[in-house]
Amino acid sequence: MRLILAALLFVCTFSFAQKNDSIMQAQYGAALSKLKQGDYSAASFQFTQLINSGFETKEVYAKRGLALYHLKDYQKAKADFDEAVKARINSVEVFENRGNAKYYLDDYQGAVNDLEKAVGLGANSYETFLNLGNGKFRMESYRDAIVNYDKALAAGKGDAVLYNNRGKAKFNLQDYKGSIPDFDKALELKPDYDKAIENRAESHYLVQDWKGSINDFEKLLAKGRADTEMLVKVGTAKYKLQDLKGAADAFDKVVQKGIKSKEVFTMLGLSHALTGNCTEALKSLSAAASMGVTDKDVFYQLGVCQYGNKEFTAAVESLSRAVALGVNTKEVYLYKGNAAYFQKNYDVAERDLEKAVSMGVTDPEIFKALGDMKFLKNDLPNAIKQYDLAINAGMKDPVVFNNRGKAKYNTKDVNGAIADYTKALELKSDYEKATENRAEAFYAVENWKNSVVDYEKLLAAGRADVEIHQKIGSAKYALLDYGGAATALSTVVSKGIKDKDVFRMLGLSMAKQSNCTEAIKSLSAAVSMGLSDKDVFHQLGICQYANKEYVSAIESLSRAIALGANDKTVYAAKGNAEFIQKDYDNAVKDLEKAISLGESDPLVFKNLGDIKFTKNDFEGAIKLYDAAIKLGLNDAVVFNNRGKAKLSIKDAAGSVSDFDKAIQLNSSYVQAFLNR
């Protein structure tokens, strides 16, 4: 019985709980509907009732938190979101709204943590990115702030504050130029946004957009702002724009406020100096200097005013300090150099005037003088620069062109040198030094023809330098004018010059003209001086062969081959000489080599045929005699020898024909009669 009663009680209790839960679920659904409709107060109230009634669905905290968030009760909303997180409700909604609530509660670190989680889970609302950006900004994480401001804008919204904040983040990253478009946009959306105006003014100032900064600062001044710092920046910007009167006016207001700043005195004094008011300039600039200023412009303008007042000692001192501090203009060196000149301090004057010239002084006479001094010191690149300045300033002095040409030549700009020498000769056709220099330059670039023309002009003008004859000979040799080369080089030798290269070219020139006697003398002299040149031994051997000096010819031609000569004439002459010397083995090798290289001298074939004959190689001999005859050798001995070779191989009929030809060519040829 007890069991039955207990069972009935359980069933009744269970049924009641089910009924009660269903009622709460219905209430929860109604509260959610209110939340969705934007009736956040009613929704919050109903969610609270459910929580107080023990509603087990913990998501109710997240929903009440959302309602409270929309009611801007951020502290309570945060508490509900905390409960939801404790219940492991880790939704985008929870972290996003808790993060935004924390932001409005000035908990920037907490806001950033939650909002980054929310974004990681897919949150992409404008408010979330904006607050995340602002949180990053507050934490001085400006790059991250910009990234999130960009995302907020990409979400489709953007107000003046967002653009101003993004601009300020860029400003704080020293991207001053990049910040300006954001401040522009902020002011486009809200033209009277003073903070954006001030921020943009600072950015314009830092990117040295002086005009832009002045416009913005003066807008603020027109609204009643009278910050001393702002006036200083307006004065500075106007000074940079060379609005010297405006700068002076701004700085006067600063000084009237009792400000004694060396920077203010500096720009105030410079403004007076640049408008020609040296009396006032000296006062302000002296004040700046007395306060320890080390501004180069202060000492420069102070020195200029002192120079204008003929206070040369003071001017040199002030201008020297200006230079030491970095002033590097042509004017400072001109003033300082001239002041030093009036004090007869010529070393300093020369150095300073030289500096002035290098920076743009346009007096061609000074350029020329400095160029000559540099040339004498062998400072050729700087000499060229000075001559360039003189010429560009209009100087038409042939000496300048000649000297610049010589400097270019000595710095390996030979073509540039030739152009300058030519210009010098256009200005003065009988300028012998320019002619000589140009001849040398033409020679250096192997313009043999023009070098000869110029060197011969020098000879015609009475010059008789051995070197000129030598270079004429070398140039003519290179031009294959062997007669002219021989004439010039013979003159060199006649003057007692003993140079192996001179003997080489003279000997080869003589050889090319078939003057073997003279060629042998010069080439032998070159060899005796240690010259080891294949062409020398080649031509020496050819001439020795022609002069029937066969032993010497063989030796010279052998050395030519050892040095790389591989010419048919070398082997032909050597082989023929060896044949005459009865060195048949070497003769065969050399004559066959000559033929393989294309030699067509019939004597080569005849001599090689004779060697073959002596070695009883009658068929080889016949072929060689055939070739000699075909190449035009019409010699009775060749026909007789070929006939003898034919007879030796039983070609009696062929031999008779050759003997007939030999007798026809030489009717007293006894051996041919006997052979026939």
Question: Explain this structure to me?
Answer:
The chain is elongated, with a radius of gyration of 54 Å. With 676 residues, the protein is mostly helical. Mean pLDDT is 90; it is low at 3-17. The protein has helices at residues 2-37, 40-52, 59-70, 74-86, 92-104, 108-120, 126-138, 142-154, 160-172, 176-189, 194-206, 210-222, 228-240, 244-256, 262-274, 278-290, 296-308, 312-324, 330-342, 346-358, 364-376, 380-392, 398-410, 414-427, 432-444, 448-460, 466-478, 482-494, 500-512, 516-528, 534-546, 550-562, 568-580, 584-596, 602-614, 618-630, 636-648, 652-665, 670-675.
Helical segment tally? 39
Q: Main β-sheet: number of strands, strand sense, barrel status? A: none
- What does the radius of gyration come to? 54 Å
Share in β-strands: under 5%
N-to-C span: 170 Å
Poorly predicted segments: 3-17
Question: What helical percentage do the residues reach?
Answer: over 70%
Please tell me the overall pLDDT. Answer: 90
* Count of extended strands: 0
Derived structural class: mainly alpha
Shape, per Cα inertia axes: elongated
What is the secondary structure topology, with strand pairs?
Layout: H1 2-37, H2 40-52, H3 59-70, H4 74-86, H5 92-104, H6 108-120, H7 126-138, H8 142-154, H9 160-172, H10 176-189, H11 194-206, H12 210-222, H13 228-240, H14 244-256, H15 262-274, H16 278-290, H17 296-308, H18 312-324, H19 330-342, H20 346-358, H21 364-376, H22 380-392, H23 398-410, H24 414-427, H25 432-444, H26 448-460, H27 466-478, H28 482-494, H29 500-512, H30 516-528, H31 534-546, H32 550-562, H33 568-580, H34 584-596, H35 602-614, H36 618-630, H37 636-648, H38 652-665, H39 670-675
Helix pairs in contact: 1-2, 2-3, 3-4, 3-5, 4-5, 5-6, 5-7, 6-7, 7-8, 7-9, 8-9, 9-10, 9-11, 10-11, 11-12, 12-13, 13-14, 14-15, 15-16, 15-17, 16-17, 17-18, 17-19, 18-19, 19-20, 21-22, 21-23, 22-23, 23-24, 23-25, 24-25, 25-26, 26-27, 27-28, 27-29, 28-29, 29-30, 29-31, 30-31, 31-32, ...
